[in-house]
Amino acid sequence: MEDGTVLAAGCVLWRRSPHGDEGVEICLVHRPKYDDWSHPKGKLKHGEDALDGALREVLEETGHACVPGASLGTTRYVAEGRPKEVVYWAAEATTGAFTPNKEVDRILWLSPTDARERLTQPRDRELVDALLDGAPHSAH
User: Fold this and answer.
1) What are phi and psi of 118, to 5 degrees?
2) Which of 122, 126, 128 has its CA nearest to residue 36?
3) What is the rounded distance in angstroms from the CA atom of residue 42 to the CA atom of residue 51?
4) 47 Rama sector, left if φ>0, alpha if ψ -120 to 50, beta otherwise
5) 15, 100, 132, 136: which one has the fewest Cβ atoms less than 10 Å from its Cβ?
6) Whole-angstrom Cα distance, residue 52 to residue 123?
7) Strand, coil or helix: what is 47?
């Protein structure tokens, strides 16, 4: 964008709960650089489609391939002094395994309630609500 806005994309990554309790678990990533818990996301490469970028970031940060679902909207905030815009989708994890890396040293699969509590930024909690309001229920 011409105004210097950083464009990024990500997913609220979910899977069916192996415990059978709340139905789904949500994957959160821990970024040591910021010491925070968030949804997998990252900056788009020049000319990259937002959904393609979101799926690439999920794979890079969590090691999981996924199937994208409903759009969960866009969050806008200032990061490191620059406006940032992140587009999110719901995405069901399919195959893969996590390997710690420089950007993400841990992931957690949590119930929606626990994920909301663990997330560092309140804006990320709203994405959990958006997911529960739509995406996985259509997959039941």
Assistant:
1) -80, -30
2) 122
3) 11
4) left
5) 100
6) 22
7) coil
Helix, strand, or coil here: 93?
Answer: strand
Q: What is the pLDDT of residues 21-80, one digit of tens each?
A: 558 999 999 999 999 999 999 999 999 999 999 999 999 999 999 999 999 999 999 988
The two tokens of residue 99 are 């390997």
Give residue-wise pLDDT tens across range 114-140. 999 999 999 999 999 999 987 443 333
State the Cα–Cα distance between residues 30 and 104, nearest whole angstrom. 6
Residue 101 lies in a domain: yes
pLDDT of 98 > 80? The answer is: yes
In a domain, 28, yes or no: yes
Query: What CATH number corresponds to the domain at position 75?
Result: 3.90.79.10
Amino acid, single-letter form, for residue 51: L
Phi and psi at residue 95, in whole multiples of 5°?
Answer: -120, 165
Query: What pTM was computed for the model?
Result: 0.90
